[in-house]
Every structure is written in structure tokens, then in C-alpha cells.
Specification:
The complex is a heterodimer of chains A (352) and B (291). Chain A is 25% helix and 35% strand. Classes of the chains: A alpha+beta (352), B mainly alpha (291).
């Protein structure tokens, strides 16, 4: 187990200055579970492959516990990685699969046997140890590839590259819960790449949100929800995402169109493109003509709550309304919980 | 639900039936017809039953030709399959100029007609004007495929390897290309040796295409005719008289239509049987492994 430090790291696949990963500095604390969240093509797999050593960064260093491993290959970094597509050795039994990394490292037969038995019982593969690995379902195969990482006692970190993509929905929950439990029990540093926010928020202690080759926010699920550091995080996390409305701001007032809103705090010296961000959860329909006038376009009932899709001039505003709440025709205004309004200048959060 | 009965639907099958009859069944039945009759000319035939089959099955000539054929096919399979895999493993995996160049080079021999391949090697191996034959002769190696049966065998085997290894290469390469990168990355993390990667990742993933390659090479080499016919004409003596060459000698050279017809049928059944066994084993092992 180790603390992983990325220092001044950047990567470009081509020789010109088009960076898949923009310069970043970040420390992954020992024993924490991280999720790397972002849309496809944002550079999260590139980052993961640099940490695991499958890819050499074009700039900067990777340190494991203050030791520079940038030039070391994967095997010497002692990391385990679970891939999107389950990797098992078809010709071997489950037991042989689990023993394979130890055998390659010339461990004694006794040790291998004991270790394989331990891990198999930990991830409940005992019953199928002597089965051929290739007839099994995707979720079991994924467990086997995880198991091959866990049998080594000296792994510095376990990396997951969208490991649940090919798993059936009902098994996803089970496997994710199991992973979480495993993390609590073993305390490995885990980095979990995904584009699914539910997966990220339920698995990780800290979520690292990436967009377009850079890390836009690192925080706990609550922080990401309440204080998105970038409008992208606001959009990407939450369903539906945060409402972002262009506004003029002076002091503790925001003006949208011809309309004035109270903000919880005062803001000074703002410049650039200004916007306010408010989660649909903190917006509510009202009859009060002092509130922001809106047009309701449609209402979606998703079971335990309703999503009101509305707009003010050209700006879309989503409102989450309780399942029980009645919506009347004369509710043509929206009010925001002023303490939950965030202010963005050029897409980045501004603190009051 | 009640099914309606309409026997007229049988007429729909008629065109196909007629086509197959003319292209396959009738010619085959002609051969069957010859194989159970004898003639002394004048278009007079009389029934001999299974006599020709008994004669052919018991004849030393057929046994020898079959033996030579089996040895030839075994040797070329033993060379071409491992060599093809070896070459495929060393071809550049990334798509680019080099891999395209390799593919084109590999495909070239496959595009040359059998007759031309035979002629190329017939001339290449001649000791008076052929580059190979002359060179070997000059450095003191006694090589003359028209007189020495060992040299004749070597020539024909090398020619076949030259002509057909590419097929195994191309199929293996296609199999290798279909392996996702994650497998190699996982193997790296597991510190698998080069041999382990081949044994546990590449070979199992290539299995399907390899079985096809072996089946194709078996059938083709078992039916080989044109190339040895052009190079050695079956000689020296009968040294390279494989089944097809022997069959043509019997049917056209000696005009023994009855025995040749029986020979054809036995030959056909042997190939069919081996291919069927092979196919069954292949499908069965696939089912067993669950994929």
C-alpha cells in the first residue's frame, strides 16, 4: 500500500501540443477509495494507465511513497488492475487463474495454496475453484480478475477501469457493494474509473471529476453536490444536473433578465462570464409574482419525485418537486433557496 | 394455431434441386455408375458389382500412393502450421505501413496460380539454368530432383511451404489482432512470461482460426495435383506420385475407367471422413469450453 503522488504530470498521444491530459499535481492518499469520474474521452483511462505504468507520461513524474516510479514498468510497480473487459485465462481453472501471478513470481507451492484459498473465500469463489474459467458469467470473471490482483500481498494500489460495464444491472449492485466491503476490510488504495455518477458516488470516499483532460474538482460526494467547483461538475453530477443561468451580479443581488434575486452572500469584484448555479432540488414552483417567471414545458414523473422542465426566456430550468406536491396552473414562478445558490465566473465557482 | 397444408410449396425447391442435380448429383452418379461396371470397348458395359472397390482397396499401388499422400500432408502440416504462427507472432501488431507491407507480401504467393507456382519451382530447381539448382550444384551439394527422390520430395515440400504458409499466417494474424489489449496488459501485471502469454492467451484465442487453417491445409494438400505434376510429373519413378496424380494416370493414362471411378469414390470418402471427424472434434471441443 502506498501514497501515490502525481507531480507536474501531463500526457500527449501525438507529438504536437494537443494534450490528452493537461498538467496536474495530485496526491492519492494511502488507503483511500477514489473514483475518477468523467465523460468518455476526458482522459481518465489515460491517467489510470499512467498510474499503472502501462503508459509513460510525456511530462512529469509518478511517485509511490516518494519513490519515483515514472520509468518503471507495470510489474515492478506492484499494482493490480481490473479492466473493463474481464480478463481471465481461458485454459486454466479458477484456482490456476488465481495462482498465476504468484507462480510467475516464483512463490512456494504451500504459500500459493494458502493464499489462493484465503482470497477465494474472501471474494466467495470457493465453490468454483476447480471449474474452467471460460464458461463462467461476466461478473464471476470480473471477480477472478480482481482476485488475481488481490492474491499478491504487496500491491500498492488496485485500479479499476470501468469494471462493471459488461455486468448485468442486478449484479452491478452486488459487485459494487462487495468491492466497497473489500476496501473497508483490506484498506488498499483504490482508484475506480467510471462515467457513471451513481457508481462513483457510492463507491468512493473522494470523487475526482475530470473534463477535457483536466481535473475540475476533487471532493466528497456531498461537496460535489452542494458546491460544484465548475459548472461542468454541476451538469455532470445530479439527475437532472444543476441549473446554470446567466446573470448580472452586484453585491448580494443577482439580476436575471429584468428580474432581481437575493443571494445568500455578497460578492465583489466579479468579472468574466457570470452565472448562478442552483440544483433542481433547491428550486420550487411558486405563485409569488416577485419570483422568477417561468414557462412550464413538461412534467416528468419518475416515481418518487417529479421533474418539472421549465424555461425562463431561453434558459432551461429544471425543478424537482415532491411526488405528493400538487402543481397548479397558476404556479408560473420559481423560487430558489438563496443559501444554495452558487456563483460562477467563467465557469469556475466564486467564493463569497 | 392451425397450420395450413399446402403441398405446392414443394415446387419452390425444384429449381435448387435441378441445379444441384446437374452440378453435383448427376456427375457423381456417373462416377458411381462406372465404378460398378466393366467394358471391353464398343460402349458395351457389364455389371461387376464391388469388384473394382475390392481390387483398389487391396492394391499395393493405392496403398503406396495413400502412404505417400499421408506422409506429405503430415509433413507440410507440421511445418506450415508452426511456421505460420511464428511468422504471425512476429508481424507488427499496430496497423500501419509495416503491417500492410507484411500482409501484401504474405498474400502474394496465394495469388499465384498453381500451374505457375509449379513452373517457377520447376525452373528454379533445375541444375542447368535454375538459380537454386545451379547454386546448390556449384557448392557441391548433390541435388537433382529429376533423378533423386529425396531431392524431389524436398523440392515439393519447400514449394508447398512457400506457397501456402501465408494462408496460416494470415488466419493466425487475424486471430491475434482480435485479442483485446487488456489481455496483454493483465499478463504484464501478472508478470507472465512470453511463453505463458502465448500458451494461455494467444493460442486459446487463435484456436478457432487455427482449426480452420489446419482443415483447409489438410484438404488442399491431400488433393494436391498441379504443382507436383508440373515439377516432377510424379517421379522419379513413383516417388512423388500422390493420390491425385495416380488417379489421373489410371483414368486418362491407362483408361481404366472402372478402377479409377472406384478409386475416386474411395479418395473422396477418405477426405470427407477425415474432414468430418476433424469438424466434429472442433465443434465438440468448442462446446466443452463453453464458448
Amino acid at each position: 500500500m502506498a501514497k501515490i503522488t502525481l507531480s507536474n504530470l501531463a500526457h500527449s498521444y501525438t507529438s504536437d501540443n494537443e494534450y490528452a491530459l493537461k498538467t496536474m499535481n495530485h496526491v492519492w492518499n494511502d488507503g483511500e477509495a477514489y473514483a475518477l469520474l468523467g465523460p468518455s474521452g476526458c482522459g481518465k483511462t489515460t491517467l489510470l494507465n499512467i498510474i499503472s505504468g502501462l503508459l509513460a507520461p510525456s511530462q512529469g513524474q509518478v511517485l509511490f511513497d516518494d519513490q519515483d516510479v515514472t520509468t518503471q514498468d507495470t510489474a515492478h510497480r506492484n499494482i493490480a488492475q481490473v479492466f473493463q473487459f474481464p480478463v481471465v485465462y481461458d485454459t486454466m481453472t479458477v484456482r490456476e487463474n488465481l495462482a498465476f501471478p504468484l507462480k510467475n513470481r516464483k512463490m512456494s507451492a504451500n504459500y500459493i495454496e494458502k493464499r489462493v484459498a484465503d482470497i477465494a473465500s474472501m471474494i466467495s469463489l470457493n465453490d468454483i475453484l476447480d471449474k474452467k474459467a471460460n464458461g463462467l458469467t461476466a461478473d464471476i470473471k470480473q471477480k477472478i480478475s480482481l482476485g488475481r490482483g488481490l492474491v499478491r500481498e504487496d500491491v500498492n494500489a488496485i485500479l479499476f477501469d470501468e469494471p462493471l460495464t459488461v455486468i448485468d444491472p442486478q449484479m452491478k449492485w452486488e459487485l459494487r457493494t462487495e468491492l466497497k466491503a473489500l476496501h473497508q476490510r483490506l484498506g488498499h488504495t483504490m482508484i475506480y474509473v467510471t462515467h457513471d455518477q451513481t457508481e462513483a458516488l457510492t463507491f468512493a470516499d473522494k470523487v475526482v471529476v475530470m473534463s477535457d483532460g483536466e481535473v475540475v474538482q476533487i471532493g466528497t460526494p456531498t461537496e460535489l453536490f452542494e458546491k460544484p467547483a465548475h459548472t461542468f461538475v454541476g451538469f455532470f453530477i445530479g439527475s437532472p444536473g444543476m441549473n446554470v443561468l446567466g446573470a448580472e451580479i452586484s453585491g448580494n443581488k443577482a439580476r436575471i433578465g429584468g428580474h432581481e434575486l437575493d443571494l445568500g452572500h455578497g460578492y465583489q469584484n466579479l468579472s468574466g462570464k457570470l452565472e448562478i448555479g442552483i440544483r433542481p432540488e433547491f428550486a420550487s414552483l411558486s405563485r409569488n409574482p416577485d419570483d422568477l417567471p417561468i414557462t412550464i414545458n413538461r412534467i416528468e414523473d419518475v416515481g418518487h419525485y417529479k421533474i418539472v422542465r421549465a424555461s425562463h426566456q431561453d434558459m432551461d430550468i429544471n425543478i424537482i418537486s415532491d411526488e405528493g406536491a400538487e402543481i397548479f396552473e397558476d404556479m408560473k414562478f420559481v423560487s430558489f433557496d438563496s443559501s444554495k445558490i452558487n456563483i460562477y465566473a467563467d465557469d469556475w465557482l466564486v467564493e463569497p | 394455431m392451425k397450420k395450413t397444408t399446402n403441398q405446392k410449396a414443394w415446387f419452390m425447391v425444384l429449381p435448387v434441386l435441378l441445379l444441384v442435380a446437374f452440378s453435383a448429383i448427376i456427375p457423381l452418379m456417373t462416377v458411381v455408375n462406372y465404378s460398378v461396371q466393366d467394358t471391353f470397348g464398343n460402349n458395351e458395359f457389364f455389371w461387376v458389382g464391388l469388384e473394382w472397390f475390392e481390387e483398389i482397396l487391396g492394391s499395393e499401388r493405392m496403398h503406396d500412393a495413400l502412404g505417400r499422400q499421408a506422409i506429405f500432408t503430415t509433413i507440410i502440416l507440421l511445418i506450415e502450421v508452426p511456421l505460420g504462427i511464428f511468422v504471425a507472432l512476429h508481424m507488427p501488431k499496430k496497423s500501419g505501413v509495416w503491417s500492410s507491407l507484411c500482409l501484401v507480401l504474405c498474400a502474394l504467393p496465394l495469388l499465384i496460380p498453381w500451374n505457375v507456382v509449379g513452373t517457377i519451382w520447376q525452373i528454379f530447381g533445375r541444375i542447368d539454368i535454375g538459380l537454386l539448382g545451379y547454386a546448390l550444384d556449384q557448392i557441391g551439394i548433390d541435388y537433382n530432383y529429376t533423378q533423386d527422390s529425396f531431392a524431389a520430395w524436398i523440392t515439393i515440400i519447400v514449394m508447398d511451404v512457400w506457397h501456402w504458409t501465408s494462408l496460416v499466417v494470415l488466419l493466425s494474424y487475424a486471430g491475434l489482432k482480435s485479442i483485446p489489449d487488456a489481455f496483454y496488459q493483465a499478463a504484464k501485471i501478472d508478470q507472465a512470461s512470453r511463453w505463458s502469454i502465448f500458451r494461455h492467451i494467444e493460442l486459446p484465442k487463435m484456436k478457432g482460426v487455427l482449426l480452420i487453417a489446419i482443415l483447409l491445409r489438410f484438404m488442399d494438400s491431400f488433393m494436391i495435383y498441379t504443382e507436383p505434376f508440373v515439377v516432377t510429373g510424379g517421379g522419379p519413378g513413383n516417388a512423388t506420385t500422390f493420390l491425385s496424380i495416380d488417379l489421373v494416370k489410371m483414368a486418362i493414362g491407362q483408361f481404366d475407367l472402372g478402377p479409377a471411378a472406384a478409386f475416386s469414390l474411395i479418395y473422396f470418402l477418405v477426405i470427407l471422413l477425415v474432414s468430418w471427424v476433424f469438424y466434429t472434434v472442433m465443434v465438440h471441443s468448442d462446446k466443452e469450453s463453453g464458448s
